[in-house]
Amino acid sequence: MEIREIFAQNLKAARKAKGISQEELAHRAGIDRTYVGALERCRYAVSIDVADRLAVVLETEVWRLLQPKD
Prior knowledge:
Domain HTH cro/C1-type: 11-65
CATH superfamily: lambda repressor-like DNA-binding domains
GO molecular function, one term: DNA binding
Largest sheet: none
Shape: globular
Protein name: XRE family transcriptional regulator
Pfam families: HTH_3 (PF01381)
């Protein structure tokens, strides 16, 4: 599995675990909602800065969003 797919799956799972919508996550992270959706569908590669902002909102560490599930 590619790193973008791993990030996409982990981002979506973390967002759902927090019970927030793509729109709310985007708003809190200061990015566009369509960008969050595109990240969750592997349409774009995320920058390290945006990954950090998303991790902060999701109250996790960036490396956890990149960690493959066993």
